[in-house]
Amino acid sequence: MLPGATPVASSLEALYRSDWGRIVAALIRLFGDFDAAEEAAQDAFAAAVDQWPASGVPEFPRAWIIQTARNKAIDRIRRQGRLREKLDSYVVSGFARTSQEPHNDAEEIPDDRLRLIFTCCHPALALDAQVALTLRTLCGLDTDEIGRAFLVPGPTMAQRLVRAKRKIRDAGIPYAVPETGDLPARLDAVLTVIYLVFNEGYAATRGEPLVRADLCAEAIRLGHLVQTLMAPHPPSEVQGLVALMLLHDSRRDTRADDVGNLIVLEEQDRSRWNRRQISEALPLVEQALRGGLGPFAVEAAIAALHCEAARSADTDWPQIVRLYDVLARLRPSPIVALNRAVAVAMLEGPRAALAIIDKLASAGELEHYHLLHAARADLFRRLGSPVDAAASYQRALALANNESERRFLERRLRELQEPHS
């Protein structure tokens, strides 16, 4: 609970964080319109802020929000004088039916959200617009957060989102999982979206917790659903993505201590890693690599090498660097180059890695990416250059929004200033 927050306010915040995507996905199914669904959801949350302190949190909060959103939408349509025309069209979609408490069907929520992903990931939209729109709608990320993921300013991303929604509306793109034959044209974007949803859960952009377990679990569930959709022979990249998420998620409980402070990989208690998830993932990595060297398969292979090492010192860094070389050819990006530099530091030492990171920094694409400056600071720290390290830690702190990461950076900065501690 946030300091000073009431139990109702905390419940609403938790509901927004965990269920925004589920709520909006259900409303889009009813309304057939992204903007209408988001506006109605926002109206319903505002109504909850007013009503729940007096009435209490309802037994089924998500169903309450969806039902209230539906009623708010009808009220808005009535005020606009278009009730009969709109309701006639909504009877077919099911919008006019009352929304009851949710059925406890494990398939219901993922299917709704998977429909939303496939709607957003239509080949008529540009790939970055597909991914950005899904992150906005499914995760509730704001335009600044999505802009940071794409390394573009928030206003630029806002314009892309508006154009994507307009194109979906004007082209009449259906809110449905496409036929099996149409899946391959959307698969790359769908897998990218699921991966970015997982990443937002694994390292939250902002707020207090480092990990959002709800998003990690939902991304893994969606990955399994795509596997099922494309059975009996899912493409290797589907296998690779599911394996990658399972391997990363297996370390989730060791990435922060009991009070939420970040624990870096080499200091994690490997005996607490989730061996069930690792055992499920490793055969998928092998299947993915046999099916062809795709980016997710290669990333999964890197994650597998970490999980197979009993101690940090046992990590096969030469093989990891070679895999990053392959990944850089398959999916060249400054983020891949940065991750490769971290592996080079472990293999060849900090000076070799610093040369790579300095080149990345001079290119400017990662100037506002806090992890570039955090990695640079760590290399200077290991080289015994406290002044340069402190400057980079301060730059990383100015850019970081997650409180767990900020505390870690502040601790590193204090250690430089108080070497004897």
Index terms:
421 residues; mainly alpha; 19 helices
Mean pLDDT: 84
Helical amount: over 70%
- Overall structural class, as computed from helix and strand content, comes to mainly alpha
Alpha-carbon distance between the two ends: 32 Å
Rg estimate, integer Å: 23 Å
The H-and-E topology, N to C, reads as HHHHHHHHHEHHHHHHHHHEH
General form = globular
Number of helices: 19
Total strands: the figure is 2
Give the strand order of the largest sheet, numbering strands 1, 2, ... along the chain.
Answer: 1-2
The low-confidence parts are 90-110
Largest sheet: 2 strands, parallel
Strand content: under 5%
Structure description:
A two-stranded parallel ribbon has the order 1-2. The radius of gyration is 23 Å and the shape is globular. With 421 residues, the chain is mainly α. It has helices at residues 7-31, 34-55, 61-79, 83-93, 108-120, 127-139, 143-150, 154-171, 183-202, 213-229, 236-249, 275-290, 295-308, 317-330, 334-348, 350-363, 370-382, 386-399, 403-417, and strands at residues 206-207, 401-402. The chain has 19 helices and 2 strands. Helix 1 (7-31) runs antiparallel to helix 2 (34-55), helix 6 (127-139) crosses helix 8 (154-171) and helix 7 (143-150) crosses helix 8.
Write a brief caption for the model.
With about 425 residues, this protein is mainly α. It has helices at about 5-30, 35-55, 60-80, 85-95, 110-120, 125-140, 145-150, 155-170, 185-200, 215-230, 235-250, 275-290, 295-310, 315-330, 335-350, 350-365, 370-380, 385-400, 405-415, and strands at about 205, 400.
